[in-house]
Amino acid sequence: VQLQAFGGGLVQAGGSLRLSCAASGRTFSSSGMGWFRQAPGKEREFVAAISRSGRSTYYVDSMKGRFTISRDDAKNTVYLQMNSLKPEDTAVYYCAAMDSGSYYSTQSYDLWGQGTLVTVSS
After folding, report:
1. Are 46 and 114 in contact (CB under 8 A)?
2. Who has the most CB within 10 Å: 20, 28, 62, 80?
3. Where does residue 100 rank: exposed (0-12), middle (13-18), buried (19+ CB within 10 A)?
């Protein structure tokens, strides 16, 4: 059972990236999925989440309108489309899976991917 995140990289401010998180060995469609990020010297913070059905999405206010989370259950994959990137978005981005609890809390998630680094240059 694992999650694998990829798609990070170096991008200039104002640019875009799409992160992907592929799940294996788990009934993907039964899990809520979230993205978190952790910048150097900072705590891990919530970015976005999507419900099992995909009908509900959740974002940090500062990322609304710039980031979009989506899922493709046929591919067991969740995506994070990031537009208008800023240097302060630089961080390691993690995907995670949950069965119940608050989408906004790291404690609700019981399975984590290894993280993918996003670097936004000014």
Report:
1. no
2. 80
3. exposed
Percent of the chain with pLDDT over 70: 99
pLDDT for 26 beyond 70: no
Own/partner long-range contacts of 39-44 (Cβ < 8 Å, ≥24 apart): 39/88, 39/90, 39/91, 39/92, 42/91, 44/94, 44/106
Amino acid at 108: S
Strands 57-59, 2-6: pairing kind: unpaired
pLDDT digits (tens, 9 = 90+) for 43-91: 999 999 999 999 999 999 888 899 999 999 999 999 999 999 999 999 9
